[in-house]
Specification:
Elements lengths: L3 E6 L3 H10 L5 E7 L3 H11 L3 E3 L2 H8 L3 E4 L6 H9 L6 E4 L7 H13 L3 E4 L7 H14 L1
Parallel strand pairs: 1-2, 1-4, 2-3, 4-5, 5-6
Helix pairs in contact: 4-5
Length: about 140
């Protein structure tokens, strides 16, 4: 079974949730993390035993060469980081936190960049199947009848 190299960009709370998910998958090894706050990187590395930590995204991409990257940063940076990741020759998949982007133009730019570079893009909307979300969907559908 192939083992994929993954990285997490954003060492905050949601980055912890992504790491906990990766820990449950046998064929993924998180090889790097990146954040603009050096202490966050150091803490995250020690907490999850991640071998490489970076404060510079370009350096992380060129050194760690991850195939899968989770984008767990402030939502206004999602488009810029996702596009940069899609341009990396090693990155084959991106998991971007919600919201995808602020505005349809930025979201479309992300999709287009990933299509152009043959990179899979997934946007994390894990709550769409919870009871409150299902109830909201039901109410919207009823109002359309």
């Amino acid at each position: 079974m192939k083992k994929y190299k993954a990285a997490i960009v954003g060492c905050g709370g949601i980055g912890h949730a992504h790491m906990q998910g990766y820990e449950k998958i046998d064929n993924i090894e998180v090889v790097a993390c990146c954040d603009t706050v050096p202490n966050a990187v150091k803490y995250y590395q020690s907490e999850f035993n991640i071998p490489q930590g970076f404060t510079d995204l370009d350096k992380m991409l060129s050194t760690a060469k991850p195939e899968i990257v989770s984008v767990c940063v402030w939502h206004l940076l999602h488009d810029e980081i996702t596009i940069k990741l899609s341009e990396s020759p090693h990155v084959k998949g991106i998991i971007c936190e919600k919201p995808m982007a602020i505005g349809i133009d930025k979201a479309n730019s992300m999709v287009e960049a990933c299509k152009k570079n043959n990179t899979k893009l997934v946007v994390s909307h894990q709550r769409r199947f919870t009871h409150p979300s299902n109830k909201a969907k039901e109410l919207v559908e009823l109002s359309l009848i």
